[in-house]
Amino acid sequence: MKASIAREQPAAGGKNLKAQLRASLLSARTNAANSVNDAALAKRIRALLDERKPQCVGFYWPMAGEFDARGLLTQWLTESVERTAALPIVTSLAKALSFCRWMPEMTMTKGRFQIPIPADAVEVKPDLLLIPCVGFDQARYRLGYGGGFYDRTLAKATSPLLAVGIAYECGRVDTLPRESHDLPLDLVISEAARYE
Fold first, then answer.
1. Which phi and psi (to 5°) does residue 77 adopt?
2. Between 70-78 and 35-52, two packed helices, what is the crossing angle to 10 degrees?
3. DSSP characters for 48-98?
4. Cα–Cα distance between 146 and 132 in angstroms, integer?
5. What predicted TM-score, i.e. pTM, was given to this entire model?
6. What number of other Cβ atoms are within 10 A of residue 115's Cβ?
7. 3-state secondary structure of 180
8. What element of type H or E holds 102?
9. Which end of the chain is more exposed for a tag (fewer CB within 10 A), N or C?
10. pLDDT, tens digit, for every residue of 42-78?
């Protein structure tokens, strides 16, 4: 299935349709990851951080063609000692994510799924989350990798949390297939636009 065809899929459907769409959009994302698109994405994310002024930004270790926010957040952290960045840690396949403080100079170790996490894990509570998207739709629903970690995290948030999807424009579809546990994001940022 090509991404252009995927844009026409109805909202109804389940895991099989999501899996087909995910494969198509992952392929498109690989082609979209380049220095021009990344610079545009970084500029839009930085504008959001300047506007919303979070104290702790949760983000993700980049993989499989995802936008790499580490350089942007390294610069953001140097501008105030009161700022904190955090990476997610999977403590259980059935639970919400935990977030541990991250600094650029930290020693990293391999966590679940071989994704790097801080070796010295100090738990923190982000007030803004940058969430990687394989795809997203007009209503700001997100297509991820299918583990449900971010949905559980957002559903169990006990303090105000701004959920920001990070995607390339090639991942935008009209409507994603949805399941009962899927939650919309507060906004999505691509290299081309900000969707609220």
1. -65, -35
2. 40
3. HHHHH--SEEE-----TT----HHHHHHHHHT-TT-EEEEEE-S-TTSPPE
4. 12
5. 0.89
6. 16
7. coil
8. strand 98-102
9. C
10. 999 999 999 999 999 999 999 989 999 999 999 999 9
